[in-house]
Records
---
Amino acid sequence: MTIRSSERRAAAGFLLPFAALYAVCFLLPIGYAAYQSMLRIERTGPLGLGGSRTVFAGLANYQAALTDSAFTQSILRVLTFAGIEVPLMIAMATCLALLLDSASAWAVPLFRSSFFLPYGVPGVIASILWGFLYVPGVSPIVGGLHSLGLEVNFLGSGAILWSIVNIVTWEFAGYNMLVLVAQLKAIDVELYEAARIDGANAWHLIRHIKLPLIRPALTLTTVFTIIGTLQLFAEPLVLRPISTAINTSYTPNLAAYTQAFVNNNYSLAAAQSVILAAAACLLSFGFLFLVGRKENR
Amino acid sequence: MKRWRHRRGPVTLLAGLILALGLTGCTGSKGADPTSTPQPGEKIELTFWSWVPGVDKAVDLWNSQNPDVQVKLENIPAGASGGYAKMHAALQAGSGAPDLAQVEYQNIPEFLLENGLVDLSKYGAADDQSKFIDWQWQQVSYGGSVYAIPQASGPMGLFYREDLFKKFGIEPPTTWDEFRTAAETIRQKDPKAYICTFPPGNSAWFTALAWQNGAKWFGVDGDNWTVNIDSPETEQVAQFWDSMIKDGLVKTEPDFSNEWYKDLQDGHILTWPTAQWGDAIVSGNAPKTSGKWRAAPMPQWSDSTFASANWGGSSTALLTGTKYPEAAKKFAVWLNSDPASINLLIQGGYGWPAATDALQGSALDKSYDFFGGQKINDVFAEADAAIDKDWGWIPTTAATYQHLNDGFQKAISGQGTFVDAVKAAQEQTVADLEAKGLTVQQP
């Protein structure tokens, strides 16, 4: 079968706005960053003040990024973070969604909105808000635990990662829940009726009908979560002034930000950004590949 | 999660990179821009980027007195919070940079490297040298040229709680040994109280303490930048704080944090070795402790000579590309040396004037109720006269601060010591400069 040229033109017309925006807002910046990451500035004269020129540096910036222990530690840190955050987030969102979908749930719109509400709070504001709950001397939580004889330091080196996990989960669990709820709502109720006639209880419904049928949504939210955790930025940036355990290269994004806007080294920042993008790509597609292989089995 | 807000992270960053580097392609340096001298009667407008509170009033005063040279002030975020990134981006783009900008002393070399500042010695800056305090003039001079007009600094002293010192039977420490003894007494008398905090995330403060002890971390030797961070002077300071922390004599909470303000309010932190501008921080954040604080000179390392230090300092610089360097320089000198302008800036809280003889009769020359009626600025005037003028900066000072912060934070969490952090910062700083294509001389 052949597609007529008019149809072809129509398809191209519909695709054009997307393709143009995708190229301008996504491909072009990434391409430019990749180009930028392979440049280096050379200086001449006493104190280097005799002028400068930009030269091709090959992969020198990538080498510099990957041999910088602070940067590699930041990658390991976000991987650890993702290892904790992704399962926690998905479990939490799934539980909330299933609770809202259960037969005995009441005031569903109210609870759905309340669970979703934190998503409406910008990440920076959420971090400031939680920051106040973490700071000793100000926080009622730290104060309350202290009066019970428990000394906790949410901002110390041992706990800070967990404190950020808490903020991020609080912010996004409701959003992911909503994606799952939407797919749960799309399940045909006749399936439940048929299952009940066969003697299935609520748990059986979850295990054998709901979870398998919301699998695409679970996959989607997992990929979102993987990408989001690797790009952790706002929370550590905001908590940094009140914590002694967050440095300027705490996460890869923060490291790139520091290189670009504090150290004025755009090329190294570009290299770090490209490395991060590649890692996020690898993990996301790796996950999708695993899921796909399992499905095809 | 993780939807568009988070995905925007790298995109914004990339967009920023594009903005920053946009159309410049492969040209890093530019030749001298053509400048022009305004004809008599011609009106010109200069743009000025600053974040200093109160500078708007001084600019208004200038504009009312100079109808032909109008200055348009644009408020930008403080340098390290994005102001410098904005300037660098405008300089690299080759357009959009202001005629004048706020540049802190430690950031001047980083702008020199981008060929971003106008050499004022070409416009007769030598004639203005006598209007400014010598050590601050040195802060804006590199390689025989002058790159900015000094504005303000932060000579250091010790704020302390006189009421609690009296209660615990402690005299204000005149040496760091006495400081340590005082810290021990405070811990014994009140288990909740500490003498001060060591802010592990604010190495600019530690830098000032090393400066006081005669360290000269950065400088210029002939054609090379010099780096000498892990000198015996610095290590002495690092060892001092290492042992203070090991023995539990200081807190390690961040300064300028709510936690720290609360401790100042509650009398759990009894002193703050800080710059003159710290008075507004203490009185603004612990107003109920009014009348209980006093200022004393910095504790000393040696009995023989009195040495103070400086924390923070800022200048007004002309950015490359300005069409009216003569008029802009005239404004910069007026802003920072005219008594009326200085008084407006003092009222805004800009710090310690860089102009000579600016204290007497100024808004700083008064007794402070918050400090029990003490004329605290007499202490800082004495400090200002005892600041080592040979201290300089390098183009990668911001990165050195980060290396120290990272090392200090590690030490606080039990990995290594401050001395280790200082040694690591030395190596990393040399590497930073070499990565910029510069040659470095080490001791």
Note: DSSP finds 13 helices and two strands in chain A.
---
Amino acid sequence: MNAIKANAVLLLSLSIVLSACAQLFMKAGMMQLHGVTNLDLSILQLVVENKIALVWLVAGLSCYAVSMLSWMLALIKYELSFAYPFLGVTYILVYLGAVYWHQIGEQLSWQRTAGIVLILIGVVFVNRKSKVKNN
Amino acid sequence: MEYVLIAIVVTLTSIGQVLQKLGADRGLKNAKTMSQIFCAMFQWEIILAIICLAAAIAVWLVVLYMMDVSKAFPFISLGFVVVLLSARFYLKENIPWNRWLGVLFIIAGISLLAQT
């Protein structure tokens, strides 16, 4: 327990970085599928048949699982209202990764950047502990 | 179509979050050793949370196929809006002004993103 509390900053950082990696790897995996027209869960069948897609997906899901675990462990020490705003960093990491990682290569646009900045401000405000008694 | 799928993902993850929190409160608060923490993973709340999250991920993968991840991912913040509105209108909680302000920012950001 003490080891967890002493390393809570590390656990929180690990959780943030891994949850961004999870999104990027899952996207990279889904990008391996081309020309699918029936967009429902049967698409997941195609993932299993496509080895490269499957590797990215397993990597993404593993990151997601470890991220969730380290998040829960970090919450032993930190209150949710303190920890949650840091998750906002994930939005930045996913955006930068999607744009600058050649595997994905999405377009940078001012409108998307502005939208993400607004959401970040919103996430901080939503989770700020207010001085109102009923909190 | 993709927005319907995002709504499903947001709903499932919101339910999953609450269950995770309930499970963590019950199991982890009194856990002292690593093995007790490990056992806490197998409470019904956590199992149910994992099922919700697994279903959410399956639907999310379809969303990722259809949309840019840099566009789709921030939509997950709608979870805050859903939880806040249900706290206000279902649980009749008093919501401090800063949370409403936060929700307005999130909605504004999402509206901008939706147009890209």
Note: Chain A has a mean pLDDT of 86.
